[in-house]
UniProtKB/TrEMBL annotation:
It comes from Hymenobacter swuensis DY53. This is DNA-binding protein.
């Protein structure tokens, strides 16, 4: 079956705007948190550097965001 392997795509809002895929206009995404490698940079105030990326459920394009 495999139905239970795939998480449901979610709608994403960024500052009150519904995220739409810039490629295909789709509004379903899979959320991923990615740890950033920051070797060589001194970011002492940034204890846990990570970015959020939303993968378009339709075409797979990745939309990257830095948490504010
Ligand atoms: Zn897309």
């Amino acid at each position: 079956m495999g139905l239970f392997d795939a998480p449901k795509p979610v709608r994403v809002e960024i500052k009150g705007h519904t995220l739409q895929c810039v490629i295909c206009g789709h509004q379903g995404f899979h959320r991923n948190e990615v740890k950033l490698e920051r070797a060589g940079l001194f970011t002492s105030d940034w204890s846990d550097p990570h970015a959020i990326c939303y993968e378009c459920d339709n075409c797979g394009y990745l939309h990257w965001f830095m948490p504010k």
